[in-house]
Amino acid sequence: MIRPEEPGDEPAVRAVNVAAFETLAEADLVDALRAQARPLVSLVATEEGAITGHIMFSPVTLPGHPALVLMGLAPMAVTPARQRAGIGSALVPVGLEACRRLPADAVVVLGHPAYYPRFGFVPGVRRGLGCEYDVPVEAFMVLELRPGALRGASGTIQYHRAFASL
Ligand SMILES: CC(C)(COP(=O)(O)OP(=O)(O)OC[C@H]1O[C@@H](n2cnc3c(N)ncnc32)[C@H](O)[C@@H]1OP(=O)(O)O)[C@@H](O)C(=O)NCCC(=O)NCCS
Question: Mean pLDDT of all residues in the chain?
Fold first, then answer.
């Protein structure tokens, strides 16, 4: 089951992120974004009442295009014992739909280029978008939630300031 994060879920969400990542940085990022970022989309996957997956979307900006509402998918985590069982793939589309309802114009993600295209993401470079981090160009991807939303837009996407501590 996928549902919005609710008050009281914070410790379980943190536990999933601590378990899924090698350092505490992503768990700390989740806590910082929850406190600082608006709008925020934070969803959990539950199995028999236990939180086994989490996904977060926070605002990103494109300099020179202040009217665009853009969200960044990060981080996403599934508890190790439950990885590769489809939980991440269930979280992404529900999260994208929540972003569409905000309404956001597009979502960006920095991630594995073999994973995110299945949800409709295309290389950011194809839409003229780059990322402020030094990553392989194919790892930065974008999905328009409103067709044509990114027409005429180009530049370097800036993540929320909480990402600076990653
Ligand atoms: C990445 C993650 C959230 C995916 O969730 P999941 O529930 O395990 O993924 P699903 O079962 O829905 O999908 C599995 C698919 O994703 C692919 N996949 C998952 N993680 C991958 C990775 N790091 N690199 C490449 N492919 C990956 C698998 O190959 C598999 O592909 P297939 O369906 O073609 O076999 C989860 O593995 C995880 O928490 N990993 C550690 C934390 C992390 O790296 N998060 C992402 C960066 S923010």
Answer: 97
How far does residue 78's CA lie from ligand 1's centre (Å)?
Answer: 8
pTM above 0.85, yes or no: yes
- Which residues, 6+ apart, have CB-to-CB distance to 57 below 8 Å? 40, 41, 42, 71, 72, 73, 74, 95, 98, 99, 107
Cβ–ligand 1 contact at 111 (below 6 Å):
yes
Amino acid letter, 118: R
Contact 54, 42 (CB under 8 A): yes
| pLDDT at position 117 over 90 | yes
Q: Does residue 8 have a pLDDT over 90? A: yes
